[in-house]
Write a structure and sequence with these properties.
The chain has 13 helices and 16 strands. It has 412 residues and is α+β, with helices and mostly antiparallel strands. The protein has three domains: 84 residues, Ribosomal Protein S8, Chain: A, domain 1, CATH 3.30.1370; 78 residues, Translation Initiation Factor IF3; 141 residues, C8orf32 fold. Strands 1-2-4-3 form a four-stranded mixed beta sheet. A four-stranded mixed beta sheet has the order 5-6-8-7. Strands 13-12-11-14 form a four-stranded antiparallel beta sheet. A hairpin with a 6-residue loop joins strand 15 and strand 16. The longest helix has 21 residues.
């Protein structure tokens, strides 16, 4: 009786598990799921050359390796000529095909009693990658995608640019890294390839870093709080010059710096005290901009050696600020063009730095003008009136001209 019960339980168990016991075959029963309907790329219609081009483009864009194109109404004498031309277009002119396709072969025959071409496509890249191509409207939108890729430390990006224009994407990467040291820890080496022959192009950029993606993320995590602290350091009301000077102090007082070049400028400077003039200018400019202060990066030479410094704007007037020179002189300084002896830069690319316009200067203000960084430049005034400095605040104030006295008239 027990043996019969065991056999019965075993039989029921096998049936419930989906096993067909007599022949050893297996039937798996799973809940029914509605599948998303996908377009059938293996059965398309083309009655003329334009439709044939569209069919070939759709096969490539979907990453299909085989497909059937019905040619029922296509003129029989023009079929092979049309197919050859469409294949060449898909491989050379169509941007996705030029990027992804290695070769396309076809065979003419019939399908369901109708004239058709069986197409076989081989790819030089994984067909699945086609679905990850970023589609953008123009070069400006492409720049935004590149910036996003740099921020994520990605090693490559592929974009379909609908309205493509010749542009230097490598230069954009260099400039973006220069002006965003708080984001881009290392400027990558760039390999650029462009595919297609029409208005739209596929642009493939490969970024090569010397540091791993994980290491770059760790560097960013250490640098980000320092930039945030710099912004808080100068928050609130205050004179522009005071804020520029505070950020100078915040940066220059962190370390007794070692002047060396690093491939990770912000990280090396802020976390290890190692950097060159370029690293100082990059980091200082980023901190100033985050605090709402205008600050540019100037590249040139000083005494014949490569040099990078900043150009700031205070109350509408432009000044040079070289952090390393300021450090040698013992504190924050602003310089006009005439004080930049030994410096060379592209004068046409930057505003003229003359400080307070000559027409507005008085004898007092000329006396206060610093000589080659020996003391701080005075704050320019918008008034044409003579100026005097108060003892309490040291601020420059405009004074009304007094009436001439008899003594002054006699002296005249």
């Amino acid at each position: 009786m027990k043996v019969r019960l065991m056999i019965l339980f075993l039989t029921v168990g096998l049936l419930l598990s989906g096993c067909n016991w007599p022949d050893g075959s297996y039937l798996s029963v799973s809940p029914h799921r509605e599948q998303e309907e996908t377009p059938r790329m293996d059965a398309m219609e083309a009655s003329d050359y334009s439709q044939l081009l569209i069919a070939m483009e759709e096969l490539v864009a979907s990453g299909s390796e085989t497909g059937t194109i019905h040619l029922t109404q296509y003129p029989a004498k023009a079929v092979e000529t049309g197919l050859v031309a469409a294949i060449n277009y898909a491989k050379q002119i169509d941007p996705i095909g030029a990027y992804a396709v290695e070769d396309i072969q076809y065979e003419l025959g019939t399908s369901a009693g109708r004239q058709a071409a069986a197409v076989t496509i081989t790819y030089r890249v994984d067909p699945a990658k086609i679905q990850y191509i970023r589609s953008v409207a123009d070069v400006e939108a492409a720049d935004a995608v590149i910036a996003e890729s740099l921020e994520r430390f990605q090693t490559s990006v592929v974009m379909l640019v609908e309205r493509y224009e010749d542009t230097d994407f490598a230069e954009f990467v260099q400039n973006y890294a220069l002006t965003n040291p708080q984001i881009v820890m290392e400027t990558p080496q760039i390999t650029e390839n462009t595919y297609g022959g029409g208005r739209s192009r596929v642009v493939e950029l490969t970024f090569t870093y010397q540091n791993s993606r994980e290491d770059l993320r760790k560097m960013h995590a250490q640098v980000e709080p320092v930039f945030s602290a710099a912004t808080l350091y100068v928050s609130g009301s205050g004179l522009q010059r005071q804020k520029y000077a505070q950020l100078y102090g915040f940066l220059m007082e962190r370390f007794d710096y070692t002047i060396e070049t690093s491939i990770t400028p912000a990280y090396s400077l802020l976390c290890h005290g190692v950097g060159d003039s370029r690293a100082f200018a990059m980091v200082y400019a980023a901190m100033c901009r985050a605090a709402g202060l205008e600050c540019r990066i100037v590249t040139g030479t000083c005494s014949g050696e490569p040099r990078t410094w900043n150009m700031i704007q205070e109350n509408g007037y432009d000044y040079h600020v070289d952090l390393l020179r300021c450090n040698e002189l013992g504190g924050y300084r602003q310089f006009v063009d005439s004080e930049m002896t030994g410096y060379v830069w592209d004068y046409s690319a930057y505003p003229v730095c003359v400080g307070e316009p000559v027409a507005e200067k008085t004898e007092d203000s000329q006396d206060q003008q610093p000589s080659s960084g020996t003391e701080e430049a005075t704050e320019p005034t918008q008034s044409l009136l003579p100026t005097e400095t108060t003892e309490e605040t040291g601020a420059t104030q405009a004074t009304e001209p007094s009436e001439p006295t008899e003594e002054s008239a006699e002296e005249a």
